[in-house]
């Protein structure tokens, strides 16, 4: 039962991956659409970033003094200047841990 | 001109820093599935069949919360519908591939792989075997995801919960978009998407994850019109 649902979910997910790559030819998209598609990363990833920071596990908004906001800001600053993925993730995590284990404990 | 192997290796290298967040997250996903009371084989089957990070957790949480299979499947479909946008962007670079190759390569298109390969494609348009970069990012992600979720399933949540490692996921995506903060139009698009995602967070079937990009792309279209 659950396996059937997993298979359907998998087929659906595969279709989301495959449709635009295999079934749509690039010529079907006009120049205007191509120009807008340049913005896809900027238009999609904040929908993962913002809820990941501002909404907690229970689906409610966090307080404005939540360590995740600080960690996120540190990651943005370090990432902007270092252009390094590992530095960005580590800086965010370490500053977050510093607040929860040292400052707020 | 880079060889297929060089491009594949380059893809592997470009995505590997993201494994710092993907591996802990995969372990957590595997462990949560078992904790929710699902059979370990089923939890692992999802990593192979769905291969879709957060959507796997949502799927199990919905089912264990008493939602119908239909609701769970629909939610996975909606959460993963963002791949349609990735495909639309990538199609330009994959055009020349045969239909079969397109079908095969589609299976390994993931968020971070799309982001890194797209950056590489933009700078190296002339390369003949560009798609090997995407295979490199996708396969690295696939192998790490399988190993990470399997470890979580077998060993349980050996990553201490207090570390809050789920927080590494937003950080990994910050690393992806942060350089675009230099461009005002991108900043506006990002803020539009981010604020919309908070505003629509409670929309049914987790649809905020596709509603907010659509709103943000609409704003991007308006910005392009203003620029002219």
Give a written overview of the molecule.
The complex is a heterodimer of chains A (105) and B (228). Chain A has six helices and no strands. With 105 residues, chain A is mainly α. Chain A folds into two domains: 1-29; 39-103, no CATH class. In chain A, 43% of the residues are buried. With 228 residues, chain B is mainly alpha-helical. Chain B has two domains: 4-171, no CATH class; 183-228. Helix content of chain B is 74%, strand content 0%. Chain B contains twelve helices and no strands. In chain B, helix 8 (111-123) runs antiparallel to helix 9. Chain B is globular and about 55 Å long. Chains A and B meet through helix 1, helix 2, helix 3, helix 4 and helix 5 of A and helix 3, helix 4, helix 5, helix 6 and helix 7 of B.
Topology of helices and strands:
The complex is a heterodimer of chains A (105) and B (228).
Chain A: H1 2-23, H2 31-37, H3 40-44, H4 46-54, H5 67-82, H6 85-103
Helix pairs in contact in A: 5-6
Chain B: H1 4-15, H2 19-35, H3 40-49, H4 53-64, H5 69-80, H6 82-94, H7 99-106, H8 111-123, H9 131-155, H10 168-177, H11 184-199, H12 208-227
How far apart the termini of chain B lie comes to 36 Å
Helix content of chain B: over 70%
User: How would you describe the shape of chain B?
Assistant: globular
| Count of distinct strands of chain B | 0
Q: Provide mean pLDDT of chain A, rounded.
A: 94
